[in-house]
Design a protein that fits this description.
six-stranded antiparallel β-sheet; Alpha-Beta Plaits; 4 helices; single chain; 8 strands
Length: about 160
C-alpha cells in the first residue's frame, strides 16, 4: 500500500485549501498516479502552534509504477505547480504532499520511509485511519487505527 498525506493552509491559484487539495489529487491522476481511496478533509491547527491559518489535511491510497524517489520527486513538482516555495520549516504553505509509506518499505534515506513523524500527528493519523485503518506501521507494528486511537485527548484534527 502506497500512502500519501495532503495538506494546505494558504490559497493557491486553484482556490482555497480544499480546492487546492482536490486539484492536487487530479494532478496526481493526470501524472499517472491512480487514486484508489481517499479520506475526507480534516481541519487542524498548525504544528507547532503559530498564528498561521488552520490546515486542511487528508490522506490517500495510491497506485503507481514509480519507485519511492521518483514518486517523491513528482509530489514536489506538483507542490511547485501549486505555488509551494520551500523555505523555513513548518511555515504556511499552498500545498504539502508527503509520501507517508511505500508498501512495507523501511528506509533511512535518501527517501525516509515510513514518514518519520506520521505516528505522532493527528492531522496525519486521523485521515490515514479513515482511509487505511488496517495499514500497519512497518517500524512500530501498530495499525493506523490503533495509532490514531492512542493519540492524546487534545490532539487536534476534525473532519470538515
Amino acid at each position: 500500500m502506497i500512502l500519501i498525506g495532503l495538506g494546505a493552509n494558504l490559497p493557491s491559484a486553484a482556490g482555497a485549501p480544499e480546492a487546492t487539495l482536490e486539484a492536487a489529487l487530479a494532478a496526481l491522476e493526470a501524472d499517472g498516479v491512480r487514486i484508489l481511496a481517499r479520506s475526507r478533509w480534516y481541519r487542524s491547527a498548525p504544528v507547532p502552534p503559530s498564528a498561521q491559518p488552520d490546515y486542511v489535511n487528508g490522506a490517500a491510497i495510491v497506485e503507481t509504477a514509480l519507485g519511492p524517489a521518483d514518486l517523491l520527486a513528482l509530489l514536489h513538482r506538483i507542490e511547485a505547480r501549486f505555488g509551494r516555495v520551500r523555505g523555513a520549516a513548518n511555515e504556511a504553505r499552498t500545498l504539502d504532499l508527503d509520501l507517508l509509506a511505500y508498501h512495507d518499505r523501511v528506509s533511512d534515506g535518501p527517501v525516509i520511509l515510513p514518514h518519520p513523524r506520521l505516528h505522532e500527528r493527528a492531522f496525519v493519523l486521523r485521515p490515514l485511519a479513515e482511509v487505511a485503518p488496517h495499514w500497519r506501521h512497518p517500524r512500530l507494528g501498530q495499525t493506523a487505527a490503533s495509532l490514531a486511537k492512542n493519540l492524546p485527548p487534545d490532539a487536534d484534527a476534525s473532519p470538515l
